[in-house]
Write a sequence for this structure.
């Protein structure tokens, strides 16, 4: 006997699993059982599970019986004439929703011509095996699956017009592309998702060739004139907020220009943009560490006795400043109240981002890379008709990745740009390559998309013909301006006296063991020493016992706490982290004795 469970509760037994399942499915398709119910037979445990619970992912499939689809040509005609609706197909049992469990017991055909006697269901269309962003990739049936995965991922990171009312919104870390375009080569999903209302890329002319080695390792070479005309130009928005908090004892924060007697007062230069209310004015140009919202806070952690002292009257500086490494123009200021009724000020800062070397770009086929060089248009190669490509893409990026869809889009983009129409590149159902080649030939170009190019520097004709086409390129949110990181002296950690971590905090970049090994291999000893001076400290060592001694500069005395005054004490330079290690060894009961030797002795 086979146990039967409904929504994970035991309800009884049946003798024949196959007959029972067929009866349940027939009753469901006939409308006697709810359409939300799914059935699954687990052969290993010999149990049948019926499920009608909420929260399951279910997908529609066409029912196949005796090797034939139940959805006939008559149904298609009635659907076109609006005589039939989706709900009618569900009621008639022609289409049914299957969950992940029932999917284990069915056999689905991808296309109608693939149906055999064993098949139980048919996909509504082969494209439904793809998700939303994946189905936006043109000609995606001509690309490797891992590249397709990367291609749909890059679309989520691209800049565009994410919302039309971005001016009124306060979103963190927002980028807006200045001149977004609808793609020439597109799938039907672009219409379904209303992609034209929120595009996230631009159509550019691409030449596939190497150029002085600047497009190695997926790098791109971009025409400087294209950038000057507005290619891939974007604006980065970041909000900064501050509120007047209330503390115990009636103490409150105050938004305003801080007085000079405030603890932690910055330079007057930092406060120069603030108006009388302590808030910066719109369209002010601000640089890093400059104050946007002036604020002072009451002193923290006051004891009972300290409440009557001078410290109780000293407020501390708590202004909101531009992040380290960022700059921009004040775009918008909002003054309001939060839920508690406290004053809340939000300042939105914008920064125009013009493409520079190191900014990341990608196509919809997982071909991503950074700008390797920005070349003046006078030095760029040009076609016989005088066309200068916007981007030079490395041909070595295609063969190993097998991204044929990338080349198909270039060909389709060229045809679309010349004929003034959009190219249908829907997966499994797009325009055929042969048709695109014929149309390109009729437009007066070589059918394979190649053209003669001329060297922009010498004017000579290249021996090889170069593949030139139009492609939809996306600028990604990863920009050099957000990653650029350098520091001289600055904030250090309390324990190790080494620079703090993190770009936002003004920290340093750690030189690890492997980087150290590189310097050693290069013999760059002075550079290595300079790198390891970040926590350099001068200490005094007793040459008798090898422990740290005391040097009292005020009294001009040097002595060892263990050996007394009549010992030789030497000043040495070492890493503070090493001094910390010696202190920790002492705490464990070890005796780390330092034996000094003059470096000037033979």
């Amino acid at each position: 006997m086979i146990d039967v469970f409904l929504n994970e509760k035991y309800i009884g037994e049946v003798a024949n699993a196959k007959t029972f399942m067929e009866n349940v499915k027939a009753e469901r398709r006939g409308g006697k059982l709810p359409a939300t119910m799914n059935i699954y037979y687990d052969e290993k445990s010999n149990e049948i599970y019926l499920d009608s619970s909420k929260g399951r992912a279910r997908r529609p499939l066409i029912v196949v019986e005796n090797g034939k689809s139940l959805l006939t040509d008559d149904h298609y005609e009635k659907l076109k004439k609006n005589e039939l609706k989706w709900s009618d197909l569900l009621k008639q049992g022609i289409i049914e929703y299957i969950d992940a469990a029932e999917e284990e017991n069915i056999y689905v055909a991808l296309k109608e011509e693939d149906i055999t006697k064993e098949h139980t269901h048919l996909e509504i269309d082969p494209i439904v095996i793809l998700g939303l962003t994946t189905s936006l990739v043109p000609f995606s049936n001509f690309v490797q699956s891992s590249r397709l995965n990367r291609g749909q991922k890059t679309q989520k990171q691209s800049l565009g017009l994410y919302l039309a009312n971005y001016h009124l919104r306060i979103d963190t870390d927002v980028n807006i592309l200045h001149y977004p375009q609808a793609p020439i080569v597109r799938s039907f999903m672009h219409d379904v998702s209303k992609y034209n209302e929120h595009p996230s890329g631009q159509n550019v002319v691409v030449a596939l060739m190497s150029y002085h080695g600047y497009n190695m390792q997926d790098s791109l070479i971009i025409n400087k004139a294209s950038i000057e005309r507005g290619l891939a130009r974007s604006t980065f928005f970041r909000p900064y907020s501050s509120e007047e908090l209330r503390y115990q004892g009636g103490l409150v924060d105050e938004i305003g220009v801080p007085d000079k007697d405030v603890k932690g007062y910055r330079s007057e230069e930092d406060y120069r943009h603030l108006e009388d209310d302590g808030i910066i004015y719109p369209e002010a140009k601000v640089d890093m560490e400059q104050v946007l919202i002036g604020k002072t806070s009451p002193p923290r952690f006051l004891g009972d006795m300290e409440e009557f002292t001078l410290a109780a009257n000293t407020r501390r500086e708590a202004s909101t400043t531009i992040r380290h490494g960022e700059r921009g123009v004040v775009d918008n200021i909002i003054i309001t109240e939060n839920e508690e009724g406290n004053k809340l000020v939000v300042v939105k800062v914008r920064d125009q981002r013009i493409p520079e070397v190191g900014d990341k770009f990608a196509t919809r086929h997982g071909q991503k890379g950074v700008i390797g060089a920005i070349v003046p248009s006078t030095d760029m190669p040009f076609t016989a008709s005088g066309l200068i490509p916007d981007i030079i893409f490395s041909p070595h990026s295609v063969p190993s990745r097998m991204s044929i869809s990338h080349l198909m889009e270039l060909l389709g983009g060229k045809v679309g740009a010349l004929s003034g129409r959009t190219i249908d590149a829907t997966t499994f159902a797009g325009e055929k390559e042969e048709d695109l080649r014929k149309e390109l030939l009729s437009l007066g170009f070589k059918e394979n998309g190649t053209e003669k190019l001329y060297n922009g520097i010498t004017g000579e004709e290249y021996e090889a013909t170069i593949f030139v086409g139009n492609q939809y390129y996306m600028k990604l949110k990863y920009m050099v301006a957000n990653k650029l990181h350098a520091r001289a002296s600055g904030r250090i950690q309390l324990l190790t006296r080494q620079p703090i971590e993190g770009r936002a905090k003004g920290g340093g970049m750690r030189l690890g063991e492997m980087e150290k090994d590189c310097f050693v291999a290069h013999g760059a000893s002075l550079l290595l020493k300079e790198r390891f001076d970040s926590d350099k400290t001068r200490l005094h060592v007793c040459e008798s016992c090898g422990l740290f001694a005391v040097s009292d500069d005020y009294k001009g005395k040097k002595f060892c706490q263990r050996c007394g005054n009549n010992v030789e004490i030497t000043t040495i330079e070492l890493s503070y982290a090493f001094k910390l290690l010696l202190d920790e060894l002492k705490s464990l009961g070890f005796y780390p004795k330092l034996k000094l030797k003059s470096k000037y002795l033979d």
Remarks:
- The chain has five domains: 2-124, 140-233+357-475, 237-353, 485-531, 536-587.
- The first helix runs from residue 17 to 29.
